[in-house]
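Minutes, project check-in
Item: structure for the 145-residue chain
Input as provided by the requester:
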Amino acid sequence: MRGYALAGILLAAEGLAASSKGARVKFSGNTRTVMSQVPQSLFAAMGEFVEEHIKNGTLIDGAGLQPLAKATRVRVAGGRITVTDGPFSEAKEVIGGYSLIEARTPAEAVALATRFMELHRMHWPDFVGECEVRPLEDMSELPQS
């Protein structure tokens, strides 16, 4: 088994804001406004999905993130570190959440992400987004100094 990060990315489109639970999700807009747009049927379906994957050991961890207004960026460039409090007006996409999963193969991880996005397609037809699947780095394989 290998760990994977699911990264759900919501793409900003003419005032459409979207959100999801259980993947790294990017969205535009105020979190409270976005959450009020999520159909109750999606919440119910996601609850069942999350419960199933917690029980079978596939879902390791996951959470939604608070809005950019509560974020702080720490950046290094040109040998200097800068700290900037949100919100960030230049943000076109925002990470809204994440999930860490266990999967035997990359294809199995992609299948789980596809099921996750299928729930959104079925319960929230106006939802615009994508789910990025990335393997976690195996820290034991890094060179030792």
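Outcome recorded: Residues 106-123 form the longest helix (18 residues).
No further action items on this chain.
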